[in-house]
């Protein structure tokens, strides 16, 4: 059905079909890029896709809402699924393959547990903080599915958004630790004019919630402005956040860490990153800002 | 130094050097085989290498005593290291590359723990039995280093011995679960004329220990003979072992399981495998036998 919907492009559901196509490209010596997504594509994803198109000869976008990265009380069932719209957006960007497998295609008939499936576990030091603290098992699921997608597509490079900062740091660590022969390309956060970082979960927000959510980027911008003005003490920088918060903001964390290894430090420098997670209007939102100028641009 | 020792072959220590060589082969469309070993090569390894030479255009043998698959009380320091002899044996088999990295090359300056390194964890169901029960963390270390070697060499196929039955079942499961694009080829156990399965750890045995060690293959052969004569009740088959054992044998396990998924069953059939681990003369030895004839051959 959907195969014909993409003009000259391909929507594929089967692992073997993707492998066959990519194999042909490889034989021609073409450079292949992968953009792994959970669908519900927005301008943030499109920026990754555009970057991939610019850097590679062929681009695969995977669309897979990965069950094993959601906790039992998380929004797996509710997570937006908009494959038709996603495929059209990809078509507009001249994506070569949209790979949208079923859970059955990805995990077979296995019960989805570490009793029955091989998992990748990122190092505890990288996981036991920030989003990993509340989302137990999340990054195990992310690393496992990303490794699967890497092995299925075998791209030369893969594109991830800086929006999910902890995720991209953990994936870079995995690639390094396991000698994965793929270059990880990190792309800056895309924001609404208001400053709100784009996220598929923004769809859950009411109009009022969207306004309240601006506090995340405001807090981060202010922290960076204070740093630029010479405040480097991390506790002092974090304290600047409190004046922004109201009873509408249920803050989960605000941290300023080393952007490469997620270590805590006493003083901020150009390797610092400020990260925030906050529940607004019942929706869990995250955002972050790098202390070096160019990398956010 | 050692580079010249191999007649026209190459002993390489660096990941990048191996990758470069293999890349050239790939560009020529050659089929690449990997034989991962911990060195101390014997006829068992040579049978893997011969199989790889027969099935592939180019063969890489890795020699790496992997620290993260040894427990704190195990024989990592004592494990035999005979790189010069190994290299000569590989040369005799016309191996194209012997890859013998340092631990530093494989793991960098990281502390070797799951706090600091990304690990592969095979499913608990496959690990919590047989050797996995006494060797806690062993198969995590095996899977992690095997995945690293796979990513470094990127072979078309990799060769493993049936001797380490649980290992090869777990690696096949990993390859399947993580969509690793490599064919796993399982090679039969090589035995001394006496019946003793070859193992690098046989070097630890005294002459008397070697004789006492024959009990392992005798027990397995007898179990299979009983099965052939019509006994299928697994408890009954296991009971036939006891008459062989003396105070010199410290049995760790004797199990008859399904050879594909390591499930326990009540009755044996052609999918069964009998596995034994026993400490003899202070040396931990393992052996196994498949209930189908051809696969042991």
**Assembly type of the shown chains?**
homodimer
Radius of gyration of chain A: 19 Å
* CATH fold label of the largest domain in chain A: Rossmann fold
What's the CATH H-level homologous superfamily of the largest domain in chain A?
HUPs
Shape of chain A: globular
- Strand line-up across the major sheet of chain A: 1-4-3-2-6-7
What helical percentage do the residues of chain A reach? 25-40%
Name given to the CATH architecture of the largest domain in chain A: 3-Layer(aba) Sandwich
Largest sheet of chain A: 6 strands, parallel
Beta-strand share of residues of chain A: 15-25%
Explain this structure to me?
Two copies of one chain form a homodimer. Chain A is built from twelve helices and ten strands. By secondary structure, chain A is α/β, with parallel strands linked by helices. Chain A folds into two domains: 2-187, HUPs (Rossmann fold, 3-Layer(aba) Sandwich); 200-296, Pantoate--beta-alanine Ligase, Chain: A,domain 2 (2-Layer Sandwich). In chain A, strands 1-4-3-2-6-7 form a six-stranded parallel sheet, with helices on both faces. In chain A, strand 6, helix 8 (165-177) and strand 7 form a beta-alpha-beta unit. Chains A and B meet through strand 5, helix 7 and helix 8 of A and strand 5, helix 7 and helix 8 of B.
């Amino acid at each position: 059905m959907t195969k014909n919907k993409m003009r000259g492009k391909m929507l594929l559901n089967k692992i073997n079909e993707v492998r066959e196509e990519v194999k042909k490209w490889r034989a021609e010596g073409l450079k292949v890029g992968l953009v792994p997504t959970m669908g519900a594509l927005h301008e943030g994803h499109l920026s990754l896709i555009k970057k991939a198109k610019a850097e590679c000869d062929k681009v695969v976008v995977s669309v897979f809402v990965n069950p094993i990265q959601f906790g039992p009380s998380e929004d797996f069932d509710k997570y937006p699924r908009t494959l038709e719209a996603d495929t059209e957006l990809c078509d507009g960007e001249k994506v070569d393959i949209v790979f949208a497998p079923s859970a059955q295609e990805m995990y077979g008939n296995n019960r989805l547990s570490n009793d029955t499936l091989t998992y990748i576990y990122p190092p505890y030091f990288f996981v036991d903080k920030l989003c990993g603290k509340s989302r137990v098992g999340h990054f195990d699921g992310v690393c496992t599915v990303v490794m699967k997608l890497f092995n299925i597509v075998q791209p030369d490079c893969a594109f991830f958004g800086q929006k999910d900062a902890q995720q991209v740091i953990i994936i870079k660590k995995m690639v390094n630790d396991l000698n994965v022969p793929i270059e990880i390309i990190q792309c800056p956060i895309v924001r609404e004019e208001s400053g709100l970082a784009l996220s598929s979960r923004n769809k859950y927000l009411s109009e009022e919630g969207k306004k309240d959510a601006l506090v995340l980027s405001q807090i981060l911008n202010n922290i960076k402005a204070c740093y630029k003005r010479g405040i480097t003490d991390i506790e002092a920088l974090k304290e600047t956040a409190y004046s922004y918060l109201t009873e509408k903001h249920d803050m989960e964390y605000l941290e300023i860490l080393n952007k490469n290894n997620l270590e805590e430090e006493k003083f901020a420098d150009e390797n610092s990153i400020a990260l925030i997670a906050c529940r607004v209007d019942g929706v869990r939102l995250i955002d972050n800002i790098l202390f070096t100028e160019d990398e956010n641009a």
